[in-house]
Amino acid sequence: MPVQAALDLGIFREEKRIIIEDQIVISHRPVNRQRDPGQQQADEKIAAHFLKFSRKPAQKTTTKNQPPIFLCVPGGSVAAFRLVEKLFDTIHEDADLLVIDKPAGLVCHPTKHGEMSSLIGRARLHLGSSVQPHLVNRLDRETSGVVIVAKNAATAGALGKILESRAVEKEYLAIVHGHVREDHGVIDAPLGRDEHSRVAVKDCVRPGGAAAQTGFFVERRFTRAVPFSTLDLRPPAFSLLRVVLRTGRKHQIRIHLAHLGHPVVGDKLYGGDEDLYLALVENRLTDAQRAKLIFENHALHARSIKFLWRNEPKEFSCEPEPWFLEFAGDDIKNL
Question: Has residue 143 got a pLDDT over 80?
Fold first, then answer.
């Protein structure tokens, strides 16, 4: 997994944090390349990146699960050094907006497990303490794709009104079980709480629910050899769908596609066996169940979002993660 080195350089007034984008390990110890083939000499890396750094031996600092690291700056001060997981991929950033390609498996809202455990926490790390970020749109934990973060309350309010007015076009890609018969269509079915489910957050299609419409287009029908399918007796047939939201209800795409008879691959809650979801939450998901799901995260990706912003059309987009592309075909980038 790519990492970046974050250095808190308090002695430099004009730049208190410097990010080394490539994966490096800096050490002034003699390098045993048989044990640590990825290590490089500090002199080479420091000289290549920062001419301000001293090349004198420095005090040792350590990081969890990483080899000891040595680093010093002019005047003998030692820079605080830690290796951190990459925050995220940035699609766009300006004075008011930060648009992020959210990875699958990361929640949007804060958790009790530190800033790196949520997208908004990582946005705070990226922006610094002087900025209070606001999530403009949200994605489920396992859904990847475009998330917009406002850097101030005024921008958040203005974008919120745009979303509420439905003057936004959102497009998703989904891999579903089975060959969808119709080339395109609209699923018009109201959604509400599933009162028969053991899962409190689960909704379903039900009379009297909130109006919900989902448009879909079949981009590809294909087969793949997999050890299990999410539903028993289902052949190894799949469809790649381009999905357009006409409303924005909770879990709308996943519920509607399951209602159509073609659940999203890897969907633990709406894939036909909600015990898979409970097993995940209760940390008892077996290897056999994981194989049955095919993917670690469900195959739903928020590909693009379009809206009018300050009288100018805006479109932000990103492609699915490698596992999604490999399964559905790399050429979906051209769709």
Answer: yes
H-helix or E-strand spanning residue 235: none
Q: What angle do CA 311, 312, 314 make, to 5 degrees?
A: 135
Whether 89 is catalytic:
no
Backbone angles phi, psi at 75, to 5 degrees: 90, 0
* Cα R_g (the chain), whole angstroms: 23
Q: 0.85 exceeded by the pTM?
A: no
Same-domain pairing of 130 and 38: no
DSSP state letter for 295: S
User: Which tens digits make up the pLDDT trace of 36-51?
Assistant: 333 344 444 444 444 3
At 260, which CATH number? 3.30.2350.10
- Three-class SS state of 248: coil
User: What is the tens place of the pLDDT at every residue in 266-283?
Assistant: 999 999 999 999 999 999
Counting the structural domains of the chain, the total is 3
Q: What are phi and psi of 32, to 5 degrees?
A: -95, 100
SS3 state of residue 125: helix
3-state SS, residue 305: strand
If one compares 11 and 179, the residue with the highest pLDDT of the two is 179
The secondary element (H helix, E strand) that includes residue 332 is none
For the cut 80, the answer to whether the pLDDT of residue 86 exceeds it is no
Give the burial class of 55: count Cβ atoms within 10 A of its Cβ; 0-12 exposed, 13-18 middle, 19 or more buried: exposed
Residues 278 and 180 in one domain: yes
Give the active site residue among 8, 43, 140, 267.
140
What are the two backbone dihedrals, phi and then psi, of residue 312, each rounded to the nearest 5 degrees? -125, 135
Do residues 45 and 31 share a domain? yes
- Are residues 179 and 71 part of one domain? no
Q: Do 16 and 78 lie in a common domain?
A: yes
Confidence class for position 140, pLDDT limits 50, 70, 90: very high
Domain enclosing residue 177, as ranges: 167-335
Give dist(CA 56, CA 24) in Å, integer: 19
Last residue of a domain, one of 36, 52, 85: 85
pLDDT of residue 27: 33
The residue out of 121, 140, 165 marking a domain boundary is 165
Q: Which residue has the higher pLDDT, 82 or 187?
A: 187
